[in-house]
Design brief:
By secondary structure, this protein is an all-alpha fold. Helix content is 79%, strand content 0%. The chain has 22 helices and no strands. The longest helix has 43 residues. It is globular, with a radius of gyration of 28 Å. The chain starts with a helix and ends with a helix.
Length: 565
């Protein structure tokens, strides 16, 4: 009893300490100017060298970290852009995974004949999934072309499942399970489609629950947040229990909920809670993933080098092998992206849709080095069994784990150096339609609101007399003036409009000052115990919403003409 209690306390202490380190690294990255994933890996490695060791359970890691992060990405990814990029996403997430598995696996087996082909294919399969989260972390605020980033996000969502399924088939082959390409292909489809079906059913069921029950419940926001947080775990566990792809189930649940309920619940409070939840989870989980990688790295690489030395190889053999495998991964990705670009260009011309440009060398190189490896690769390779069914050791297990861990770090380092250089080389890209679409949507919304308000004011004036009529007319005039200012916000040289904008700026500044004065007074009242914490929470939420709304209005006002000129 005492030992189990001590173990639970130790686990709790480790988790709290890791979360604390995650927060500190997020603060430190603003000072040291090192990409956050690399900083967290380095901090984790230093902690391990100082004696802070953390046991790593791959199955638990896959369950706790991967489903919620993939669900979150799927839930928030723009579905229109994902649909438009469907062909390249499919080619990367399925075609490239197969191409990489056989290409890298054959290379490793050729370079190291003592590694069985099936084991080399297992290594290649687990190296095929990419990590768009890690890429975002190393960009340090630099913006990739929007469509390019959407393709990478879609690829990362789907290639985790295809890579891990291929990995499991390769491991089964090493274990002596009879392998047939036709049977394996059918099993792959069954596992993938089954996972997709489970995720779709659970996503649809959650939407129906929200629509028919939660939206009518007074405490809907909190209940919605708890249930939506459990949804990716439910999808993953249900699919895995049935022998299907849990990762694809979690991704599909997020995509279905994105399609059916893109705004996150029926009420504004629910949406704020949901978005805050995912921000917190991503902040914590992404940091923990790279910290755990750093904590495993010294022992993995150190053990791999020691075994190479004991086997009669140079200590540099393992680092060279990591460089070779990483180079082949990048070259195969470059070749695949080039082939698919040529194929799509040819199909486009055959269909006589005009000339389609082949991707430039810089764009192909950017796509190649942007495919960094991350959490799924680490969890997958560490799940290699220690022993085969006949009792013998899994062939070259420590070598495969060392190579995979080294490739993760080296791919991050290459992306840190090359992505900024390639972005500068690409220069100005095609104009992003996002801002234009946003501006057009705001204008159409304002025009629709004005039409509705003008009709409503006219009807209201007919029902009112005297003072009530004057007050209603003044209120309607103020509201309509705000919408006219939004519609006439373009700089057309009209001094009256410029004066109206200046008046609006002054009004927003005064309103913001008033809200901040209220906040200061609220803090004073709390310090003097004039109000309790329950009242403070209510007041803070009201002030936060008011300040956010006023700040957004102020930010949306056009700049002064003098500044623009």
């Amino acid at each position: 009893m005492a030992s189990s209690k001590g173990a639970a306390m130790h686990l709790t202490t480790v988790i709290l300490l890791l979360l604390f380190i995650t927060a500190l690294t997020n603060l430190a990255v603003t000072v040291v100017r090192v990409p956050l994933p690399l900083l967290q890996i380095a901090v984790g490695a230093v902690c391990d060298l100082l004696g802070f060791h953390v046991a790593f359970d791959p199955a638990l890691f896959l369950l706790l970290f991967i489903p919620p992060l993939l669900f979150s990405d799927a839930y928030r990814i723009p579905k229109r852009e994902l649909t438009e990029a469907g062909v390249p996403v499919f080619m990367l997430s399925v075609g490239l995974v197969i191409f990489t598995t056989f290409g890298v696996g054959s290379f490793v087996h050729w370079l190291l004949p003592f590694v069985p082909l099936a084991a080399a294919l297992a290594l290649a399969a687990v190296l095929s999934p990419t990590d768009a989260v890690a890429l975002s972390g190393i960009l340090n605020g630099r913006a990739l072309p929007r469509r390019f980033m959407h393709v990478l996000q879609g690829e990362a969502l789907l290639n985790d499942a295809s890579g891990l399924v291929s990995f499991n088939f390769a491991v089964a082959t090493v274990a002596g399970v009879h392998f047939s390409l036709g049977v394996a292909s059918l099993e792959f489809l069954a596992v993938a489609l089954g996972g997709i079906l489970i995720g779709a059913i659970l996503g649809w069921a959650f939407f129906q629950l929200d629509k028919r029950v939660l939206s009518h419940h007074a405490g809907e926001a909190s209940i919605y947040v708890v249930l939506v947080m459990l949804l990716p775990f439910a999808a993953y566990l249900a699919a895995e229990e049935l022998g299907l792809s849990g990762i694809l189930a979690a991704v599909t649940a997020g995509l279905v909920l994105n399609l059916l309920d893109p705004f996150g619940g029926s009420h504004g409070a629910t949406r704020r809670h949901v978005f805050s939840l995912w921000r917190i989870l991503e902040f914590a989980f992404n940091g923990l993933i790279f910290l755990l990688l750093g904590l495993q790295l010294p022992s993995i690489l150190g053990g791999g080098i020691q075994r190479a030395v004991h086997a009669g190889y140079s200590p540099w053999a393992l680092p060279l092998l990591i460089v070779f495998v990483t180079g082949v991964l990048i070259l195969l990705r470059f070749a695949w992206v080039l082939m698919t670009s040529l194929l799509r260009t040819g199909v486009h011309r055959v269909r006589r849709r005009g000339q389609r440009r082949i991707a430039s060398f810089g764009a192909l190189a950017l796509a190649s080095v942007a495919g960094v490896r991350g959490a799924v690769t680490l969890a997958g390779i560490l799940s290699l069994p220690l022993f085969l069914p006949d009792g013998s050791q899994f062939p070259a297990r420590s070598l495969l784990i060392s190579v995979a861990a080294g490739v993760i770090v080296l791919s991050l380092l290459i992306a840190v150096v090359c992505v900024p250089l390639l972005l500068r080389r690409l220069g100005q890209q095609d104009e992003d339609p996002f801002e234009a679409e946003l501006a057009a949507a705001r204008q159409q919304m304002a025009e629709s609101a004005m039409r509705e308000l003008e009709e409503r004011v006219e009807d209201g004036l007919k029902r009112r007399e005297g003072t009530r009529r004057n007050a209603y007319e003044e209120a309607g005039s103020r509201v309509l003036a705000d919408y006219r200012l939004r519609l006439d916000g373009r700089d057309d040289g009209n001094d009256g409009q410029e004066q109206a904008r200046e008046d609006k700026r002054a009004e927003m500044a005064l309103r913001l000052r008033g809200v901040r004065a209220e906040r200061a007074e609220m803090r004073r009242l709390r310090q003097h115990h004039a109000i309790n914490d329950e009242a403070v929470q209510i007041l803070i939420e009201e002030l936060d919403l008011a300040e956010e709304a006023l700040s957004r209005v102020a930010a949306s006002l056009p700049a002064r003409r003098e500044a623009a000129e």
